[in-house]
Amino acid sequence: MNEATQLESKFPVPLRDKFHIPTFASMGIDPHNNDELTYLCGNSLGLMPREIRQAINRELDAWASRGVEGHFNHPSATDWVDVDLPVVPLLASVVGAKESEVAIMNSLTTNLNALLVAFYRPRGKKVQILFEKGSFPSDYYAFHEQSRLQGLNPQETLLQLEPRPNEHHLRTEDILKAIDDHRDTLALVCLPGIQYYTGQWLNIGEITKHAHRYGITVGWDLAHAVGNVPLQLHDWEVDFACWCSYKYLNSGPGAMGGAFVHEAHSAHTSMPRLAGWWGNNRQRRFAMLENFEPIEGALGFRQSNPSVIDVVSIHTSLQLFQMAGGVETLRARSLQLTNFLQRLLQSSKFYGKPRGFVIITPTHHTNDHGAQLSLLFDTTDIDEISQSIRAKGLIADERRPSVIRLAPAPLYNTFQEVYRTFEILEEALTEFTAH
Ligand SMILES: *Cc1c(COP(=O)(O)O)cnc(C)c1O
């Protein structure tokens, strides 16, 4: 605990007071206990920035007082017609993109599907999509159905990589080799920036570069990477990417997603896509002409006018990232938090023991994992441990049958909380192994 206090004074939590932290009482665990819970679940749903309530209220007031005129004559903030534009530079800095390369639009799976329509262009023998076995099911369904929409057979087009026997994550060399082996039949490589289950951070730059040698398009699902680790999407020459905003970006349940389209593509307005009026030339959008003139850049991939309440939530939340010094600065503290958690867990008397647990997240290098550590328990019924840690005040994410994911978020979690996490797990496992 001493060490936690020392680390906390060396790497102080930047913006905890800007967030609502759930308590035992607010969570319904113990109505008389107003102590804060240890929330290590920001990889699943980030906590609520307090200022989002005012930001949303401002839009409700605008709607109440001005109705439709809020689109062009907002009483107190950006006109709704351009409400997402001030968010673009903030988002571009989070993902390492040029401003012209990012947009907030739709939601994650919808963006994946929209970008697959534009970027998955099977031709001749080049029809395959390389991705991972054990991918988030939404992504699998998208690849499967996109293949069928092209009149192809998913049995032939879906190429799934899996870790070697007795290993938990993919080796970069194996991914590169799979690309070499299938270079003549691959149309697309589409992988997660950070794998949601294991927490592995893939080498986005190297994999993208390798596939490009053979002219293969490369897309990334950044759900668990955005706001978690520094990204350089422009420099890595990623073709396209998409993400959600409710995990590390703290923008609220089901908040709109984001999309990246590299300028090498987005500058070409002739690129076929899923189209809508919001992607059309801003000056002529309301002329209602039968002439699709997409905006140059990622904004030209927007289809609908955005949900204003969503957009201001994302805006408010991204301002906190900026206030904290940006993702690079946060990452330095994040590594300290996660390292501390790792050291404590590995010192546990249950580590690697029967009915104990191991960490399956790769942690050999600073660039092979983000904030999250995934714990694999030696039990096929994780529910008992899960319920026990929750009752003791640790909110973590359970993945049946045997995994619990812990993710200290550098914006609001503290080293004391990491220590408390360790204590709670020790208590829970002491009880669990006693029967
Ligand atoms: C969280 C997550 C999703 C969720 O998709 P939504 O469209 O936002 O519901 C999809 N894919 C991955 C990899 C995720 O981590």
Automatic annotation (TrEMBL):
GO terms for cellular component: cytoophidium; cytoplasm. It is found in: Cytoplasm. Keywords: Cytoplasm, Hydrolase, Pyridine nucleotide biosynthesis, Pyridoxal phosphate. Its EC number is 3.7.1.3. GO terms for molecular function: kynureninase activity; pyridoxal phosphate binding. Pfam families: KYNU_C (PF22580). InterPro entries: Kynureninase, PyrdxlP-dep_Trfase, PyrdxlP-dep_Trfase_major, PyrdxlP-dep_Trfase_small. One of its GO terms (biological process) is anthranilate metabolic process. Its cofactor is pyridoxal 5'-phosphate. Pyridoxal 5'-phosphate binds at residues 108-109, 136-139, 221, 224, 246, 277, 305. It comes from the Eukaryota. Coiled coil: none annotated. The modification N6-(pyridoxal phosphate)lysine is found at residue 247. Pathway: Amino-acid degradation; L-kynurenine degradation; L-alanine and anthranilate from L-kynurenine: step 1/1; Cofactor biosynthesis; NAD(+) biosynthesis; quinolinate from L-kynurenine: step 2/3. It catalyses: 3-hydroxy-L-kynurenine + H2O = 3-hydroxyanthranilate + L-alanine + H(+); L-kynurenine + H2O = anthranilate + L-alanine + H(+). Homodimer. Belongs to the kynureninase family. HAMAP family: Kynureninase. Catalyzes the cleavage of L-kynurenine (L-Kyn) and L-3-hydroxykynurenine (L-3OHKyn) into anthranilic acid (AA) and 3-hydroxyanthranilic acid (3-OHAA), respectively. This is Kynureninase. The gene is BNA5.
